[in-house]
């Protein structure tokens, strides 16, 4: 219920607008969405929901990375929802304004579909088949249970889904080199598995607990006769040029300890 109805029993045309915002937030962030949105600044909540939907779209769209148009829709929807549930009803948009904003978004989405961003990651360009050469577990995001001032680590698993040998190489987009990955590269025999340790150096709390780092897992079929010594950076650079590399992009997420144990 809108705050003006709860406190004063007031009903206006913005009552339904508030209800619309509540519905959108629950769709985008679950039943606790209103609670989450009330406990953080709008920008942080938008980032939280966007990160969550990046993982969902990555797992269901058939692409390792959600397209720009998909994330544009997510951000627009949650931004509209937050304005709909503004405490001051005068700050809430009118229904006609919401419709107009959505209508303006549609041609932008169509344009993105016709002229996709040429700088989009290699993920969509380097796929060699419908199924991945390797399966990555976890498949949606890599989570660190964050504690300030402590070294953090987590584990992931790579599985070779093919009957051939697969070379892999793991990096991050972090330019500060805060992550230590072991093993960083290697060869997976047919239908085999291996575990990867990812360690994050100790650091102070990040602003708003936000993280935009990504773990990048490259994989390529390995020709007969090649050994571990052949798996160099130049080997993968050449494979990228030849478009025979498959890449999985895994968002890195920090989870606060108090949130980890929360029942909400």
TrEMBL record:
It holds the Pfam family Motile_Sperm. InterPro entries: Ig-like_fold, Kinase-like_dom_sf, MSP_dom, PapD-like_sf, Prot_kinase_dom, Ser-Thr/Tyr_kinase_cat_dom. One of its GO terms (molecular function) is protein kinase activity. It comes from the Eukaryota. Residues 133-255 form the MSP domain. Residues 1-109 form the Protein kinase domain. PROSITE patterns: MSP, PROTEIN_KINASE_DOM. This is MSP domain-containing protein.
């Amino acid at each position: 219920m809108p705050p003006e109805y709860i406190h004063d029993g007031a009903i206006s045309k913005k009552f339904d607008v508030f209800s619309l915002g509540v519905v959108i937030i629950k769709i985008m962030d679950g039943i606790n969405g209103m609670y989450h949105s009330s406990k953080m600044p709008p920008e942080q909540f938008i980032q939280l929901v966007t990160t969550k939907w990046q993982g969902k779209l990555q797992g269901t769209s058939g692409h390792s990375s959600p397209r720009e148009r998909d994330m544009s829709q997510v951000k627009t929807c949650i931004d509209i929802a937050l304005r709909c549930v503004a405490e001051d009803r005068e700050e809430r948009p009118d229904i006609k304004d919401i419709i107009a904003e959505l209508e303006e978004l549609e041609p932008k989405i169509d344009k993105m579909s016709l002229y996709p961003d040429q700088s989009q990651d290699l993920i969509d360009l380097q796929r060699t088949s419908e199924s991945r050469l390797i399966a990555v577990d976890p498949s949606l995001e890599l989570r660190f249970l964050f504690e300030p001032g402590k070294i953090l680590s987590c584990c992931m698993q790579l599985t070779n889904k093919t009957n051939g040998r697969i070379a892999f190489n793991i990096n991050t987009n972090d330019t500060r080199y805060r992550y230590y990955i072991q093993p960083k590269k290697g060869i997976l025999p047919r239908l085999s598995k291996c575990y990867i340790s990812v360690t994050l150096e100790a650091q102070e709390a990040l602003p708003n607990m936000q993280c935009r780092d990504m773990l990048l897992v490259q994989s390529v079929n390995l020709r007969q006769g090649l050994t571990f010594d052949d798996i160099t950076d130049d080997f993968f650079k050449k494979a990228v040029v030849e478009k025979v590399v498959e890449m999985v992009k895994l968002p890195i997420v920090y989870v606060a300890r108090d949130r980890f144990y929360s029942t909400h």
